[in-house]
Specification:
There is one protein chain. This protein has 253 residues and is α/β, with parallel strands linked by helices. It has two domains: 143 residues, 3-Layer(aba) Sandwich (Rossmann fold), CATH 3.40.50.300; 81 residues. It is 35% helix and 25% strand. The chain contains nine helices and nine strands. A nine-stranded mixed sheet has the order 4-1-2-9-8-3-7-6-5, with helices on both faces. β8 and β9 form a beta hairpin. α5 crosses α6 and α8 packs across α9. The chain binds adenosine-5'-diphosphate and magnesium ion.
Length: 253
């Protein structure tokens, strides 16, 4: 049995503004095994982004245990790739140069990084757009470029914070399929934050459910639907059983 890539135990996070304290995460415990695609689902404001920021080492937990990387040395700057709700591409850089940004920041050898960035753009379906600027791409295409950017420095862990929340419903479904394909090709460990219960079930190999703020663990379970997943699975009984389970955990049944 290999040790998990991520172990969170009774994690608590309090935001302090002046003398005011706000408990954003009260008690969160879960493990992530290498290669999993974990969907982290819960209502808006429950603390999902805060949990991701703790994993990315952008915030320190106030209490509890956060272990990342098992026994190997893990450096968040090098080993984490992040995708946000907005693509956040730099408008004065070409798509290729945007994808290269983490490699530039880390000072990776430019020639190899360029080759990898081109391969990643091909993987996300953006061959031929290398020299375009962000404004020349649709929202979905920009988000695919952001995914390529998160992968360019070959991180061990990808954190995605509601990456498709700003897209229209059809584009979002396409991006979900694209995500699953990228995950199966890249074999990365991914934590995918969403407030969509359908999206959480469709994407996740495992699912972590958080209750309304401040975040507490509701449950963690395996989503035993086969891969590759297809859109018609959303109408299957097993899919409905998983979504009902999450609604129940969130007190919405
Ligand atoms: P989610 O991503 O699930 O919507 P967040 O982790 O962003 O939730 O926020 C959890 C709670 O913490 C929210 O009530 C939010 O208003 C509050 N919060 C987030 N960031 C800060 C901050 N920097 N200072 C104070 N409160 C914050
Ligand atoms: Mg959030």
């Amino acid at each position: 049995m290999t040790s998990p890539l991520i172990e969170l135990r009774n994690v608590r996070k309090v935001y302090r503004t002046g003398s005011r304290e706000f408990v954003a995460v009260s008690d969160v415990t879960f493990d992530v095994v290498e290669g999993d695609l974990v969907s982290l689902v819960g209502p808006s404001g429950c603390g999902k982004t805060t949990v991701l920021k703790i994993l990315a080492d952008l915030h320190k937990a106030d209490d509890g245990v956060v272990k990342i990387g098992g026994t190997s040395g893990f450096e968040p700057g090098r080993d984490v790739g992040m995708v946000f709700q907005q693509a956040l591409l730099l408008k004065w850089r070409t798509i290729l140069d945007n994808v290269l940004l983490p490699a530039d920041i880390l000072g990776l050898p430019r020639k190899a990084a360029r080759a990898r960035a081109r391969d990643l753009l091909a993987m996300v379906g953006l061959s031929g757009f290398e020299e375009k600027y962000p404004y020349e791409l649709s929202g979905g295409m920009q988000q695919r470029a952001a995914i390529a950017r998160a992968l360019v420095h070959d991180p061990k862990l990808i954190l995605m914070d509601e990456p498709f929340g700003a897209l229209d419903a059809l584009t979002r479904e396409k991006m979900n399929l694209e995500m699953l394909r990228i995950w199966e090709e890249s074999r990365k460990t991914i934590i995918f934050v969403t407030h969509s219960i359908q999206e959480a079930v469709f994407l996740g190999s495992r699912c972590v459910v958080l209750t309304a703020g401040p975040a507490r663990m509701a449950d963690t379970f395996t989503i035993d639907l086969p891969f590759p997943r297809t859109l018609d699975m959303k109408t299957a009984d097993e899919f409905g059983a998983y979504t009902r389970r999450i609604y129940r955990l969130l007190g919405m049944d």
